[in-house]
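Quick one: structure for this chain?
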Amino acid sequence: MKKDRKDTVLVVGCGRFGSTVANRLSEKNNNVTIIDIDQSNFRKLSPSYGGLTKEGDGGDIDVLESVGIEKADIVIVATDDDDTNIMVGAIAKDIYKVDEVVVRLFDPSKDICLSRTGVKVIYPAVLSYNEFERLAYGEEE
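Got it. Here's what it folds into:
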């Protein structure tokens, strides 16, 4: 992400990953909104979090529109359900034409659903293994 640009970022899912991303992007002075179906998850946000929160189902078009998905520069989808993440990522990219869409998937075999869509996918297990390999064997990427 460019430091000289203030992005409008929508994060769907306020678990450990989503809250960390939202906190860090907020600290970098981006316009951040985070959606979660369970309002109690917003407690994971830091006291300095300067963005907005929205309780609701991130897979619901009305909820996405209520937070201005059509104005988002970046959408990050990190619920605890791969199928929901795939669906919301596809909605953001295909319907709302968001430039940068990043989806977290736990099951790498599901990436076929997003192939050729322009949606970027991250896999915690693969990232963890790559870091293990780098630390244990000193291999660089």
